[in-house]
Write a structure and sequence with these properties.
The complex is a heterodimer. Chain A is mainly beta. Chain A has one helix and eight strands; from the N terminus they run αββββββββ. Chain A is globular and about 45 Å long. Chain B is 35% helix and 19% strand. Classes of the chains: A mainly beta, B alpha/beta.
Chain lengths: 138, 395
Amino acid sequence: MANRPQPQFPEPNTEAYWEGVKEGELRYQQCNSCGEIVFYPRQHCPACLSDDLAWKASKGDGTVYTFSVIRQNRMPGFAELGAYSVAYVDLDEGFRMLSSIVGVEDPTKDIHIGQRVAVEFEEQDEGEYPIPVFRPVG
Amino acid sequence: MTDRQAAIVGIHEYPLRVAPGVSGMQIKVASIRAALDDAGLSWSDVDALYDAGDGEAGGGLQLAQYLGVHPTIIDTTNVGGSSFEFHAAHALQAIAAGKCKVAVLSYGATSASRRMAIGTGRLGGGGANWRMNMEMPYGSTLISNYAMVKQRHMYEYGTTTEQLAGISMATRRHAMNNPEAVKAMTDLEFVGVNDITEQNVLSSRIVADPLHLLECCMISDGGGAVIIAGADVARNCAKNPVWIIGTGEAVGYVDNGSDITTSAAAQSGPIAFGEAGITPDDIDIAMIYDSFSITVAVCLEDLGFCAKGEAGDFVAGGRLAYDNDAAKLAINTDGGGLSSNHPGMRGIFLLIEAARQLRGESHSQVEGAKLAVAHGNGGMLASIHTGGTVILAKD
């Protein structure tokens, strides 16, 4: 599948994240004041409310924290898919993101908690932004 | 606020779960009228309006106009399915502060008649939005969010679907005692309107792994109303007052490194129990928002009815049924969202059935019930959600 909904702009919090995705980079933020890892992207640190955040590039390696395989979704773009996965992935740099696990033969059997995964940027049929998804490694 | 300052004095549950040609607003008005009758109060007594301002029903400011009232308190808090527990908490505070005497909470929705795909449809309204920009591309559904909690709970604690099926079994037993729930399941064309077994749950289709169909609430029409009054009014109403003796509110969300199997109830519960000056051991009946089996399991743990990770054993075999004295606790004695009604935000029914129990009016009456908890879970576990805990007591 490559017809996922695209992010929509203007949206000032997530713009730099999606610009990174276009360049093949999975970005997260870190607070320069207190060191907190910040994700989803925003313009302040939720730990100390500082607005002094630095963008960083993740290596894109992580672990499946939890997942579900969706058998029924009436939303266009997903309704026709058959079973597909959603997952929370814990990246090694310390942030958690919602994503999808791809590249498995049977998502109902081949995905498990604790599985090591790596990011890839899935090109879409329409829209300028690829979508970061994860594929099992090793 | 442990003094008995405000009580539920009137309740009504709209009887139909399929009500084509009726609007949510009309359901609210019919329910308010019946709940005032139940209390022995009249329209002119009402001076506070609480409404979740939801969807097609219209509400909030519109509701005041539609009803034709000029309340001194208007509160349009919408925190999803837990809105009504928040409303009850706020009504207690307003009454205690002397701002009002008779508060009306109401709800009405026709989600079944409008064929709303609540659990399996599009999340969010689209458009540029901080969080939606990060989540929309992945096609998660309301059900898949709860499913991810169940998945992690199974992984961490060895919880099984066989165990959690006990929640669906107990609520179905209660529903079979409730003629309105039986009619609901009949009208909504349930495959089997009868008691269910672990095997029925296990063999029902998977909607989003690892959640089976019989672990998911129905989508129905429906609604209801609750009247909350100050002590001086409550003592002179038609029915025995059901006192609000403790409330707690909290929000929860997924964060880096957070434990997805712990809900906002872990915060709202202790606040409410502390205010009431009682412990979960004292509670006879628990109305826990049963959007899904896992919602009940997680909230029972977080409220302190069992330790984290032990809900599987605690609910197994349908042991939280109304007539199991060994369990010392019964849940969702109306049949719950799983088997009686779920128009989208069923928090009001938790208050209504808890009040019925403390009045001795339930179809699955727990003999001698004195203390109840109603816990609403709004939004979505595994995402942004709320917990609203209300502790109720009879005289």
